[in-house]
Write a structure and sequence with these properties.
The chain has one helix at about 45-55; strands at about 10-15, 20-25, 30-35, 80-90, 95-100, 100-105, 130-135, 145-150, 165-170, 175-185, 190, 200-215, 230. With about 230 residues, it is mainly beta. The chain has a domain at about 145-190: Thrombin, subunit H (Beta Barrel). The strands form 3 sheets. Strands 4, 5, 6, 7, 12 and 13 form a 6-stranded antiparallel beta sheet that branches. Strands 8-11-10-9 form a 4-stranded antiparallel beta sheet, with no helix packed on it. β9 and β10 form a beta hairpin.
Length: about 230
């Protein structure tokens, strides 16, 4: 038995035609992406044993589909730039999704899809993957240092403030943040600047729309594709 050590995103190539990629590692479980020719059957060991134990199927005549010799579809690889559609669901029922395809580089973290990592490796255009992302890999746990007491004068007087309300706040650098009002009186406002999904486990459905450009090792990247936007954020 050959024993190898691989990191997330790294591959093992078998006989030049089969590649095994480490997609994710969580606890004592590893998620693997396997790319193989259509003629090669890939099964979990328990499925393989059931197939061996079952009686052989009756062979039937088949009609040629005319697809013999067709070029296999390219699968997503580490470093590829791809376009995806996604739906994110939080534990408390909130949902966000893409209107337009979102472009990202496989293996690099994207702020709209935290915890995705290399999970798209091995997929082809049109395929999708569902992930469950714990808070530590998503938007983090609530940070008490991000709760602040601000002067009421930092807010426009005509802006209604009430506990539990979320508002857009522009800081001194012109950056906009979504914050939650915790307490308010005539002089002071207590705000929570944690991400609204902090502490939430996410379920993400991500579908590959297109492989825009291969990784730099395979070709030059096209820099003209637009970025997607969130729905519900």
């Amino acid at each position: 038995m050959l024993v190898l050590t691989r990191r997330i995103g790294e591959k093992i190539v078998i006989d030049g035609v089969i590649s095994v990629t480490v997609v994710a590692i969580r606890g004592d479980k590893a998620r693997l992406g396997i790319s193989a020719p259509p003629s090669v059957r890939v099964d979990r060991s328990e499925v393989h044993e059931r197939r061996r134990a079952s009686p052989p199927a009756v062979q039937r005549l088949s009609v040629s589909s005319g697809l013999e010799g067709a070029i296999p579809m390219r699968t997503v690889q580490q470093g590829d730039r791809v376009q995806v559609h996604y739906v994110k669901r939080s534990r408390d029922g909130r949902t966000a999704s893409s209107r337009e395809p979102l472009q990202l580089t496989v293996g690099l973290e994207h702020p709209r899809l935290p915890g995705l990592g290399a999970a798209l490796i091995g997929l082809t255009t049109g395929q999708s993957r569902t992930l469950t992302v714990p808070p530590e890999e998503a938007y983090g746990l609530p940070d008490p240092t991000r709760i602040h007491r601000w002067s009421r004068q930092r807010f426009p007087q005509d802006t209604p403030l009430r506990p539990g309300k979320r508002i857009r706040f522009t800081d001194g650098r012109g950056r906009r943040h979504l914050i939650r009002i915790l307490e308010v009186n005539s002089k002071m406002v207590v705000v929570d600047t944690n991400h609204r999904w902090a502490g939430q486990t996410l379920q993400m459905d991500v579908k590959v729309v297109a492989i825009v450009a291969p990784s730099p090792a395979e070709g030059d990247a096209d820099k003209s594709m637009p970025q997607g936007v969130d729905r519900g954020l």
